[in-house]
Amino acid sequence: MATANQLKTLIKSHFEENNEKFNTVALQIAAHEAKLGHSNLANDIKQIIDNGKKTSPKLKPLNSELQGLVLEVESDKKLSDLIVPSEIKDRINRVIREFTHRNKLLSHNLENRRKILFSGPPGTGKTMSASIIANELHLPIYVILMDKVVTKYMGETSAKLRQIFDLIVDRPAVYLFDEFDAIGSQRGKDNDVGEMRRVLNSFLQFLERDNSESLIIAATNNLGMLDQALFRRFDDVIHYNLPSDEEKIQLLKSRLSKNVTSKDMKILLPMLENLSHAEINQACLDAIKESVLNNSDISLSLIEKTIKERTMAYKI
């Protein structure tokens, strides 16, 4: 039988839409019922919670002040979908495990990784990694549109940052600050202005003071532009690179497994030099779409054609 405090906490967490707290208390009740020998009831409670976790989180409407600053995103990606070096997968999985078992860490006066910095060229998996973390943890993901946050009115930028960090506290989720170098550039640069330095200082203060239940992820394509003071504010920094030959083969096989032979791989690999994971993936999709529209098989020449188109798109 649930205690009075547990019942009150369940009701309160329901109206606050705090699923984590609701699930925790419900599992405590299930464990108590199991000790009393009510195994069927305990199993039913656990099954209800497990079924609920499989359902994609419903995104609540944002208030009007945050419309245009924060993009709500649905995520269905899994860690197995990510084609990156095993070291990066392991580190992402560590973020997931620490969040999942954060109460155990807290019981030993330890905190889970909550503030992560992703760096690397565009299209190498940074945004996808954030989506995977959200999906694996059954959390919504919100992308902060930095180009909308930073305006010519610097005081307005700081006010927008405050609103975003208030949201981070009020609504547990994964928050991705994409193109983070828009505000994270080095404070000592010659072309820097005093007000932008104050914006960066405000962000650093908000980040350092944040003790919410959310995960904060910042992503940058230009690590060298970031102020060094940022790094110690993050719990982890993960660097992404352009795909290795092994990863390129994995990407081709994942999309074109029935249409690419080992002999084809040797021909295609040199053509993929300097292309990102996203660009290779898109070239494969282009070949698939063209084959569907033409009612034809995916040939080596077609794949070569779509790869060349992706490569030429970046040449002036």
Query: What distance lies between the first and last C-alpha atoms, to the nearest angstrom?
Result: 71 Å
Under the CATH scheme, the architecture of the largest domain is 3-Layer(aba) Sandwich
What's the CATH H-level homologous superfamily of the largest domain? P-loop containing nucleotide triphosphate hydrolases
Whole-number tally of structural domains: 3
Sequence stretches where pLDDT stays below 50 over 5 or more residues: none
Residues in helices, as a percent range: 40-55%
List keywords for this structure.
alpha/beta; Helicase, Ruva Protein, domain 3; 316 residues; globular; Rossmann fold
Description:
The chain has 316 residues and is of the alpha/beta class. The chain has helices at 4-15, 19-35, 39-54, 86-100, 102-106, 126-136, 146-149, 154-170, 181-184, 194-209, 245-256, 262-268, 277-294, 300-312, and strands spanning 70-73, 115-119, 141-145, 174-178, 215-220, 236-239. It has a six-stranded mixed β-sheet. The N and C termini lie far apart (71 Å). The mean pLDDT is 83.
